[in-house]
Amino acid sequence: MPNRVIDLRSDTVTLPTIGMRSAMQQAVVGDDVYGEDPTVNDLEKRVADLCKKDAALFVPSGTMANLIAVMSHCSRGDEMILGADSHIYYYEQGGSASIGGIHPRPVLNQKDGSIGIDDILAAIRPLDMHSPITRLLCLENTHNRMGGRVLKMAYLNEIANLKAQTGLSMHLDGARLWNAAVALDTGISTLVAMFDSVSLCFSKGLGAPVGSTLVGDLEFIQRARRLRKVLGGGMRQAGVLASAALVALDEIWPRLKEDHLKAQQLARGLSKNPFILIDETEVDTNMVRFRLTHKSITPKDLVHRLKNKGILMHAVGGPYLRAVTHFDITEADIGVALDAIAESLA
User: Fold this and answer.
1) Which residues pair with 287 in a beta bridge?
2) Would you say 216 and 243 are in contact if contact means Cβ atoms under 8 Å apart?
3) What's the pTM value of the predicted model, to 2 decimals?
4) What is the secondary structure of 55-124 as a DSSP string?
5) What's the pLDDT tens digit per position in 122-161?
6) Among 241, 242, 180, 239, CA closest to 205
């Protein structure tokens, strides 16, 4: 493999910036399980204020944040409605069921990552002793498996009406909500107003090494804090990690638009390749999902050929591949990747 590797597998592969490393070295810390880490407290307050929610909780990962949220909203044997291609259902090892005892009711995701309102209504169980009780709806913004698609405000307004109509609790997996806010040029609080809880990740597009936050009202966060402890997420002097997340909010969030533009650059280049199908209008943020139509080269073959040229990306099932831009990827890297793809498919 060449010395220079262009890693488009995910935005989780970013390395901490110099600013993050400096902040981590100088962080003022305390015991967060006792609520005494000032840097964690600053981060939690900042994210809660951004979301206009009562409180926030810093946790090691987005998967833990989602599991804590689901377990905080539901009792064992309750049911949650979620997308069949959602991260919670597809990539989190069934933790809500195996650990939380919560029954998932998967519903088809639309191409834009949403779940049809009528499909949600049809999935809500009538009260019957033979059925679990439907307690929770989980949505995802941006949507990973749908290629980083953003839930539009018109749909979120429908979700708010649905909440008022049904009384369902609502959780948003907002691991990449920072990207959605930039794509829509909208405040975070506007995108989460209709949700009871939201998870937001710092180690994806924002590039911090570790951490997510979970936000909600005070009672919810009190339950969540207890669950974080029993799941092993009490991290003691966690301000070392929270300091990097604070830098990410200041330094990386304002420049996420650059990652979106690089994704659009990649999509335009891919659209010119006769062996690739892609709809450029579906590239909302920093993910590019495309279909390979070559008769004799499979997505896994292409991934292997590209790896030998120093380009890393993922085959994500069937004829599809995914590339993700981030702050370690330059415009020149996109050109190199496009040339390597063309050579590998020639």
Assistant:
1) 324
2) no
3) 0.96
4) EEEEES-HHHHHHHHHHHH--TT-EEEEETT-HHHHTSTTHHHHTT--EEEEEPBPTTS-B-HHHHHHHS
5) 999 999 999 999 999 999 999 999 999 999 999 999 999 9
6) 180
